[in-house]
């Protein structure tokens, strides 16, 4: 469902977020230890993309995930880089199964619940190269209540915070092969990296927060 095509980029504009933002995701072209990095960058205002250069991506980093996709297109998260530190994600939570039906549920993380709430036409699917029916998944966890819309072969077309109405709406999808491999460290987070972060011995670049999320 995530459609992690090498060097693919997704560009989103915010709704009900002030000031307006552009959020761009980028999938590294190469796997490292069977894991692909998905990198997020954000800038203020509405622009076509943040993925204009590797410098733009680094200067506007919001975070990154290391994701493994198996032969059934099940996507599991194995590592993360967020504000100030990096860490392996325990339990390799299942973010999105390759096949979804209404009412299907699973626990991506202890205490968290994912529920398929709809299938069919998804919001902003017109931004996909080949719009087809998809599915919506609602994720809840300790005050966290958000819904993602997924289109096979395209990826995430919408992400909404159900508490405050803040939303990412897909504006375009493209190939950004000139960016190359940007954040392979996400794909090789070790216990040593985690320990160094916790001890304050190693800090990542200043990640830009995304209001409302």
Description:
This protein has 213 residues and is mostly beta strands. The chain has a single domain, classed as YmcC-like fold (Beta Barrel), CATH 2.40.360. Helices cover 7% and strands 42% of the residues. The chain has 2 helices and 13 strands. Strands 1, 2, 3, 4, 5, 6, 7, 8, 9, 10, 11, 12 and 13 form a 13-stranded antiparallel β-sheet that branches. The protein is globular and about 40 Å long. The two termini are 21 Å apart. About 12% of the residues have low confidence.
What would you say about this model in short?
With 213 residues, the chain is mostly beta strands. It has helices at 54-59, 191-198, and strands spanning 8-15, 21-27, 36-44, 61-69, 75-82, 85-88, 94-96, 105-106, 113-120, 134-141, 144-151, 155-161, 167-175. The model is unreliable at 185-209 (pLDDT under 50).
């Amino acid at each position: 469902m995530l459609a992690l095509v090498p060097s693919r980029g997704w560009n989103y504009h915010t709704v009900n977020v002030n000031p307006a933002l552009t959020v761009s995701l980028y999938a590294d072209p190469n796997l490292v230890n069977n894991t692909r990095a998905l990198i997020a960058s954000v800038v203020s205002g509405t622009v076509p993309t943040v993925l204009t250069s590797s410098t733009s991506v680094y200067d506007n980093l919001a975070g990154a995930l290391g994701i493994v996709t198996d032969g059934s297109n099940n996507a599991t998260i194995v590592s993360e880089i967020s504000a100030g530190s990096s860490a392996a994600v325990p339990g390799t939570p299942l973010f999105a199964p390759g096949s979804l039906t209404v009412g299907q549920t699973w626990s991506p993380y202890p205490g968290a619940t994912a529920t398929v709430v709809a299938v069919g036409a998804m919001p902003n699917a017109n931004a996909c190269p080949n719009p087809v029916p998809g599915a919506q998944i609602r994720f809840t966890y300790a005050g966290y209540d958000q819904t993602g819309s997924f289109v096979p072969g395209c990826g995430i077309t919408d992400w909404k915070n159900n508490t405050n109405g803040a939303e990412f709406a897909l504006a375009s999808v493209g190939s950004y092969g000139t960016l190359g491999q940007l954040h392979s460290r996400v794909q090789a987070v070790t216990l040593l990296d985690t320990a160094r972060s916790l001890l304050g011995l190693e800090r990542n670049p200043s990640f830009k927060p995304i209001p409302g999320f």
